[in-house]
Structure formats: C-alpha cells, structure tokens
Here is the input.
Amino acid sequence: THSVDYDMVAGPRLAFGYRLNRCATVEATYFGLHDWSNSATALGDNNLRVPGDLAFATQDFFDSDRMRISSNSRLNNAEINYFRRTGFKNIALLAGFRYLNLDETFNINATDIDAGQSSDYNIRATNRLYGAQFGGRWQKRWDAIGLDFVGKAGVFGNCAKQQTFVGDFDNTFVLRESTTSGSRTGVVGELGLNGTCQLTKAFYARVGYTLLWVEGLARAMDQLDFTDTPQSGTALVFGSGAFMHGVSVGLEARW
Here is the structure.
C-alpha cells in the first residue's frame, strides 16, 4: 500500500476576515488539493492475479502479465468561524461550521499481453462531511512579528457513496457495476501554527503549518472486495481515517 502514498502537492488556501467589534471577528476559509495522485506497476509472466475467488471468476485478472494500481484524490474544505475574545489575554474562543469533501478513485488495471486485453477494477469513494466545530486561538505580537496558534474540532455527519466497476475481456464484459450510499458520524480536528511579518502598513508576509485529521471515512481502497458472490462489491465500508499536513506560504492584507 505504501507504493501509492501521495507526494507533496500545492493547492490554494484563501481566507477573509471581518472584525465586527473590538471583541468579535468572523472569518471564512477555503483550501483544497485538486490533483493528488500516484501509481505503481507490478510486472510478471502470466503469473499475476488478484486475491480471493474474484481471480477465478475472470480471465484478465487471472495469470496476467502486468498489474497497475493508481490512486487519485481531491480535497475541498470550506468553513466559517466566529471568534470571541475572552478575559484571558491573547486568547479567543471560536465556534463555526465546516464542510469537507474527500473524493477518491482507486483502480487496478490488469493486462494480458498475449491476448491483447486489459481490464479494470475501479472504485470511486466520495465523502461529504458537514458539522459544527469549536476551539480557540492564541495570538501574540512583537512589533512587526506576529504569531498565532489555533485548534478546532467537531463531530460531523458524513454522507458517503462508493461506486464499483469490474470489467473483463478487455472491459467488454461487466462483472460488477454498483453504487452504494450511506451515512455515519465522523470527527474532524485541526491544529495550525502561523507567523506573520509586516512588510508595509497594510501587507504582511505569512507562513504557517497545519495538521488536519479526519476520522470515520469510507476510503476507496477499503471498498475492495475480492470475493465472488452476488453481494460482492455492494457494501459501503466505513472506519478509516486520513491524516494530512503541510506548509502554507502567502500574503496577508489588512485594512
């Protein structure tokens, strides 16, 4: 499974804040990763097959010459938060609403070079999480330098769906084609450390590091089913999580 771990990629992060009064601020944030992908290939000589009974029910996934696995993910996060300063210096509490979408595709492509055939076992899993979150932020300034640390978490509803396709005989024969939907609760937590440096009266350079943890997902690879029954591939399997982290660099304007 480590053969398709994702490398670091860049994506946009946009934030807009409005100060309601001396104690309260509203902030809206979006970030996303739109093309996260990796692949790996195993080469053989009429001796590669998928596990379980599924291999014996197919031609292209039994004693093939090449197996290629590929994984692709898209992440979208949007949230709006209300910050309220407390009686403790430099500390504000937050309450807000977050939407997080994780869309994954996992594919196994089997090729029989002698027969000139290539078929796919393809799964697409979509997770859409909605919910309230709570947390806090600590901020400190030293002349032109600023530092803030924010933590937030919440319990979310996850509306998930998985779509399965298994083809054979060069994808001309459909062995499986199904869509299954379901829902359950999940958890989203985030920690962020950010620093700013004042460049002009209105502009600041900004650098940060973010940790994002999501639990209660239906991941694409967890939907793989190598049995061969009428119900094979129709389940929606929850229980996995995702841990993401990365650096952000940008520019901040204040007016």
Summary: The chain has no helices and nine strands. The mean pLDDT is 95. The CA atoms of residues 60 and 168 lie 6 Å apart.
